[in-house]
Amino acid sequence: MTSTLIWIAVVLFAVGLYLSWTAGRLDRLHARIDASRAALDAQLLRRASVAQELATSGVLDPAASIVLYEATHAARQAEEDHREVAESDLSQALRAVFGELDQVEAVRAAPGGEEAALELAAAVRRVPMARRFHNDSVRAARALRRHRKVRWFRLAGHAPFPMAFEMDDEPPAALADRATN
């Protein structure tokens, strides 16, 4: 009788240890999502700031400046529910303005333009990497949260279900070429 109770206690302890480990893993994944989202937000803000600086610098033609300024302003002021659309619109505006190498060359020719073009190219290149990293973290947490043991024992607690950040982040061809040079 006592050996049966000991085995039951050992099994319960092992199950409890496994559930605790799984809950800790899920917590670490949620922390990783928070960190990757903060990094993505920082990269999106950096891209918008550099683009807005270029739009107000007077280097671009007036039509391009207005298009770029309005898109950056909308991206920086967007509420969380509309952020993906506003950031996609900024990507499209960047492709429209910097789709041709001539516009990038005009920026580079201006005083301080070489640094501005390099900074924008770097910002445009880092956004897809940050978004991919965030979405990979979300994918891993979602996969773990789908397991029955996580749902049955409510190991996720009250944490919201993680959402991926889907946006158009294709860089302009002229800036993508510039970033690799």
Would you kindly provide a written description of the structure presented here, covering whatever features stand out?
- It is a single chain.
- By secondary structure, the protein is mostly helical.
- 77% of the residues lie in helices and 0% in strands.
- It has seven helices and no strands.
- It has helices spanning 2-55, 62-77, 83-97, 101-109, 113-145, 148-152, 173-180.
- α2 (62-77) packs antiparallel against α3 (83-97).
- The longest helix has 54 residues, at 2-55.
**What is the average of the pLDDT values?**
93
H/I helix tally: 7
Order of helices and strands: HHHHHHH
What class do helices, strands and sheet pairing give?
mainly alpha
Describe the secondary-structure layout.
Layout: H1 2-55, H2 62-77, H3 83-97, H4 101-109, H5 113-145, H6 148-152, H7 173-180
Could you give a short description of this structure?
The protein has 181 residues and is mostly helical. It is built from 7 helices and no strands. 77% of the residues lie in helices and 0% in strands.
Features:
181 residues; mainly alpha
